[in-house]
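Summarise this fold before class:
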Amino acid sequence: MDRVFALSFALFVLGGISARVVKVSSGPLIRVEGQPVSIRCDVSEYGGPREQDFEWMMSQDSSSGGSRTKIISTFDASYSHPSLSKRVASGDISVVRLHDNEVELKVAEVRTVDAGFYWCQTPSTDSEISGNYEEKVQLIVIPNTLRVSPQAPTPSVPEGSDFTLSCNVTRELTQPTYLSVTWSVKRGTSSEDILVFGPQGEVVVGSKFARRYADGGIRLVPGRNGVFELVVTRVTTSDDGIYECNGTEWTQEDGGRWVKIVESKKEMGTVTVTPTGQSLRVVLSSTSPQLLTPGNTLTLLCSVSADNLPALALEVAWLADGRDIITMERGGVVISNSSSSSSSGGGGAQGRRGEASLERTGAGEYRLGVRGVSREDGGAYTCRVRAFLEKGGRSSGGGGRWHMAAEKTSNVMMAKVATIKPSFSLSLDPVLTPQMTADPTELACHVTNITHLPPGSRLAVTWEHTSLPGVGEDPSTSHAIGSLDAHGNLIPAPSYSERMESGALSLSRVQPNTFRLKVLTTQEMDMGQYMCSVAAWTLNSQGEMIQSSELRSSALTIRWDAKRPSLNVVAKHIREASVGGATFEMSCSVAAENLGEAGYSVLIQTQDSLQSSVRTIMTLSPDSVVQHGGATDPNRRDSLVLTKASSAEFRFRLAGVQLSDRGYYWCDITAWTKQQLGQAWTKATSAESNKIRIDFEENGPSFSITIHSDASTVYPWETAMMECSLSVSGSSPKKDDLAYEVRWYFTRLRGGLVTSQVASMDRFGVVRKDTRNSSSEISIERKDTHTYLLNIHGTQDSDSGEYHCMATPWYLSASTGVWTQAAELTSTRVFLTVKFAVWESLKLPLLYGVSASVGVGLFSLVLGLVCAQCCCRNTAHTPRSRNKLMDLEMD
């Protein structure tokens, strides 16, 4: 009995008094028949082992005294009731341990018979009974009454129209559950949600549809009796796909958390959006004669039709010989190009087209009228229609975003005006032809044999260029260089404007009938065929300049034998580095062929071996700007120099070489040219030099490491000490020229081999401690230059395991004067055991028990003697009978 009392007292001292708390999922839990169910249970504030066992029971009565059915246990495989053993064996009912003190009861497919109260019980491991050891939660199982009935949408929808996605989602309300409906679209293997409605009336829109929903392009229309409609307006071809409807039934548990209990997804159907371009038709017709006389009116009619014509906003433009003359924007605003084109000198629309007007005569009907035609109004007329669709919904008030859905051009209608045009001849002659790249070029365009040119007429010229095959752009396409209009204005083409502004290329009129093109520095891209077009401009009856005739010269080919530039780069030693700390210097000389005046950029590159990766150390731009590469140590940039010794020689110097500098070094040089002053550099060619090697040897010190523990076995709350010793041999540096980085590691042998870092001390003496799963304290002490101590104060059972240390030596190189990192060292492992001192824990309680027992016994004996003497003594003397036999019998 005394031993039991002492053992109980010891457990009380070690474990302490705790009030056990068992918790389960908040209830009641409403779930749908046939769906999975998970119920969690955890225990806290308990005594005994960390890993706890759990038992699950079920009853139809919520009282604790009701009949319960055993379901499953974490430690007893035969715990389950015979009625549930098959479901447990099949895995339909299982228990999953989440943590040492937490498990989860899982039912793969819940049944209506599973409804009731579920009890989670934990067997006691505490020294005293305190707290609760079981907890219950109610599970309500309802039948699966969720029904999703979608209505198939229109399979084919014209672009810009609307379609409706109707879905009927219902369920029988037996418990407080809620519904939500989700529309999604599937394209290929991916599916994305469009809109989610519910479960409390909120609307969640997919990220790709948020802007469209805000603009009103997607509208939700809740109906009656479970009917929900999603209206998608102003559809585009991106709306193609397979649409799905997903109905979900939810329940809200304690804390406001929404739990999905069942869902059903049904495919609604495929929607194909017909592009506007497939149905858009543009037809051009004429109500005026094809042969007109000056002063007549030209009338043309453009008819537009499309399947979704009411949803389209049309922009209608009339073109004559490919040039816009008048446009009606989609808002109905008419813009005439006559004034701007008249002043441009390139065939003015005001003179060519007369007075142009455009009006809409009906749905899809647009009429062009040109009054007072002149002899220049003849040509090919077309009607170009651009159809726009509004991305925003109809509720956006017309402020939506527009995009062009299709563009169509009508058939060509020819209009002829009887005229007598001026005539002349053209000849294109070379004045200067280039013999090589960068030579000048000069061409002259002569106008001769001029007839029928009225007084006051003027000539305008346009220069064109066509590239040769293999040089520049597509040789079949002619590109404009620039023009001089009838008023003498210079109009450069966009691709030549920069060269004209800088003076590298010029267009001029040297005589009334002679025009000149001059290129100061001809490039390879300038090779090709050149042509000049001359137009005669005359005054019409209103005193306006109109183009009366135009003639194009024959092509003149400009070409030369273009040799590709090349570089030859040679690297050579200037100073070799044979020992550490010396200076390495090399020069790179460039020899160029077929290259004029150029600038050079230099890359100094290196690699440790011929198979290793290439690193860039320094760069020098053609403008002599020096930059350091990614392979440069910022602390050593003062030791690196890259200079330009001459126009074709560069020098690289590396002072104070180290072992890490050993390897191959070379120059990568690129030649750059400029077409003219002020322009950007253009790459011509590049080349690499031969490789020069830095190779020298330096014998550094060698290191070793050992670990020693003062004791392999300690008792709790004692201090364990481990010593990590390092030694150095070879060319041993001085004491102040040596430092170590020391790290301690611990490997726990229980619960799997897991190694973690305990603490570290860097070479500057800064100590860092890592987070540990123990209440003991650790400290690191540097005993001397080569010895480091790890102390574990107040050891616990969790400190049992293997310990080892790792160290990285750093030493100051005598040759380079730079701190050098040596190879990392790893010690052997020592084992530390923390024993549980049973006798030391129990000897005091046992001693106290024995002393108390002896004290109580002596006290009882003394008390008995006192009572016998004081309370039970008979003072009257009775004479003893002489009959001894009688006396014995009486006694």
